[in-house]
Amino acid sequence: MSEEDVDHAARARDHLGFSRWWLVLAAAGMMAVVGPYQYVWSSLRGPVARQLGIEAAALSTVFTLFVIVQAGSQFPVGWWRDRHGPRGLAVLAAFLAGGGYVGLSVAQTVWQIYLAYSLGALGVGIVYTVAVNTALKWFPDRRGLTSGVGTMAFAGGSAALVPYVRANTGPDLPAEAYVDVLQNVGVLIFAVVLVGALVLRDPPAGWRSDGDSADYVGPQFTWREMLRTWQFWLMYVMFVAVSGAGLMLTEKIVSYADQLGLAGLIATAAATLLPLAGGVGRLVLGGVSDRVSRTNAMAAAFTILGLGLFAVVYFGINGMGAAFVAAVAVATFFWSPQYTLFPSVVGDYYGEEHSSANYALLYSGKMWGGVFGGTVTGAFVVSLGWDNTFLLGGVLAILAGAAALLLEAPAPPDDDSDPSGTGDRAPAGTDD
User: Fold this and answer.
1) In this structure, what CATH number is given to the domain that contains residue 80?
2) At how many degrees (to 10) do helices 60-72 and 41-52 cross?
3) Which of 168-172, 305-309, 414-418 has the highest mean pLDDT?
4) The whole model's pTM is what?
5) Is this entry keyworded Repeat (predicted)?
6) Is residue 288 part of a domain?
7) Which of 28, 48, 172, 293 is placed for a possible disulfide with 153 were both Cys, Cβ 3.0 to 4.6 Å?
């Protein structure tokens, strides 16, 4: 039996008792409500600084710390999830991610802001690996589309909140409005993630086979075996470069627009379009990649991202506000699919049995991308200027697009035993 002959939907329904798409819906809902940690911070930094009576620059490390914690948590979370299932972790994430925003609303010092946002970032990291790998494990036939749905929600879910936050946290509004906004978002995060946790589960081992042979499932690499392939390390460098360029755009676009003297409405429009365009891009290119070469999709997307960043600079320095916003949308549309394309390629190349841990290792590159997009580019802004900093991000993206053309599937591992002797080939857990 070949992979194409398998009715994955019917097999999943036999095990679940309902359509596997309900799992995607639950995962997407969870991703949508935690996305504000990444996409709304650029709109929150100013109000938080005003609330504490400090300069916004004093909070410049918060976003970098968020990225480090969120990305750094992926591997231990993924390793645990591959063995014990998603439910317990997702319940923990509800308390962490929801509590982070509530803690932010009552924080009185900078270190309390760091603590609240970091605890929330840990919750976001848990939700992310749980949600993305739900798609990889249950949808081997539609990895690009279904991982695109989840990661689209992570970006697009924030689009509705950006105007809400900016409208209710202005300098002329009472402090109570600021507190209410953050607490309302925190309660929403807690409720949605908790409900999603009750729905999610992982497939049992061998669910795609008939019980006699699973050869058609393909190679299943452990994380140690994956690290021995050159493809992983090339993808890691690409991931760092693309996430660095995109996170720079996310974290600094409002400040860049303000520095260019563009109207406040332009800055708000750009900030709102970031998650919206990113969400649509993940869904569209994820679905396209199921039908064409994923590496070609990567090459095209990352190259256009780079050109989009060039356009952001060009239109910005020429005071073309509407074109500036359009360029931001284009750049984000083609940046965000990295979070759909990379996990899909990891599933294609290394199998889904250990996909949580495997993709988590690749996703850890977001830590370095976050350091570049936040702290390093902050230093570049001072030394090189805003325009050259954004142009540098564009160059990195184009180089990553060229590197994608070098990728090819790795040779299968030598055997099906765990070479480390640590049980890395333990079957995935079934949280039911």
Assistant:
1) 1.20.1250.20
2) 130
3) 305-309
4) 0.76
5) no
6) yes
7) 28
